[in-house]
């Protein structure tokens, strides 16, 4: 059965972020069901989902309450839109709940179907805001290299993923990127002090503002911790210095919480961890624990008041903006997270526990750095012989990811950075397993790579 599914998949299905030909040759992994923090493949293998799907299944798999919320809402009102002065109870109740959970100055939400659509909305809203303020020339948005804000044209333009820009044709004009606060890859090789490096990255934002002219810059957009870029936790000096720069100039702050929101960093919003006061906050993923697609942009009073009082009609929206079934599931998800104290447990118990266990991997010869924040973690792989990054041709990260999957754990690779972001309902015992499985995957990766690191050629040794 799984072979025929693989054949059909190869014949008809173009997967996201995938080398179609290579996948066709290798065959896709088929995930059939899931429970708690585990996914199960077609062969019946149980795999610890160290990535919560794609950073989203915060409440874990198999939550009947979410299934019931969806089924009940589907029976009552499976669809109606929020256009043309209509709405429905799930959208209104979710809007109220989100604004109650968010920092006090965020009192409005614009719903979307995904994080990418949320960032498209951000771009349109930011430019609309400044136009309404009589400053249409203030349209430049500063993002960061290696930032990720989605895969629509605006999302990929706001993000700073060079391979996406190269494939995407011309990006949306008026978007520019500054250096990322990636200490391990950019500060450490230059022999800098991490805190001085953090301040230097913030200074790069100010330099770009001055280059463009403050009167032309609309907004700065960033993730609190870069997720898809490699779980990059900035040095402690970075965010206070960025805040100081932005406070000097009249520029909106957009904090993309698509990954960091809803408990990942031990707060409802990652910006609370870094004491940021964003004007706009794109959200998605953990909002519904990934059970149904829904996103949105939380809008601060400064922007919302202008859009409401001075804006007239905003020509923007999606058929599924605030979809009733997705909204009902998201609301139930937030209620469950609140009732079960999920966010507080990440902050007070599971985050510190993961930190204490994950950092023990730093003694592994392949690991140059082991870091965590909340329930997000990364390992930087290095060549044990040179102490530097592996030759890219070895694809060490991909090798380690595939070994890990085969041994029973999802661990994502971004280049040679290994990442985990497990469901927030993981237990201490499961964290122990996660760290043990990560070490075993590192050990096997080291064994596979050893012959290729030695001087004399050795027979190929690749995992099956
Ligand atoms: N912003 C951020 C910060 C994200 O991480 C998006 C926006 C876009 O959301 P949608 O819902 O349109 O995908 C994301 C998505 C990965 C990976 O492998 C990360 C994302 C999506 C897919 C894969 O790390 N992040």
From TrEMBL:
Name a GO molecular-function annotation.
Answer: transaminase activity
Mind telling me which SUPFAM superfamilies this protein's record contains? PLP-dependent transferases (SSF53383)
Which Gene3D superfamilies does this one have?
Aspartate Aminotransferase, domain 1, Type I PLP-dependent aspartate aminotransferase-like (Major domain)
- Keywords for the protein's UniProt record, in alphabetical order: Aminotransferase, Pyridoxal phosphate, Transferase
Keyword Transferase part of the UniProt annotation: yes
EC number from the UniProt entry: 2.6.1.-
Q: Which InterPro entries match?
A: Aminotrans_3, Aminotrans_3_PPA_site, PyrdxlP-dep_Trfase, PyrdxlP-dep_Trfase_major, PyrdxlP-dep_Trfase_small
What are the names of the required cofactors? Answer: pyridoxal 5'-phosphate
GO CC field? cytosol
Family the entry assigns: Belongs to the class-III pyridoxal-phosphate-dependent aminotransferase family.
Q: What is the protein's name according to its record?
A: Putrescine aminotransferase
Q: Which organism is it from?
A: Halomonas fontilapidosi
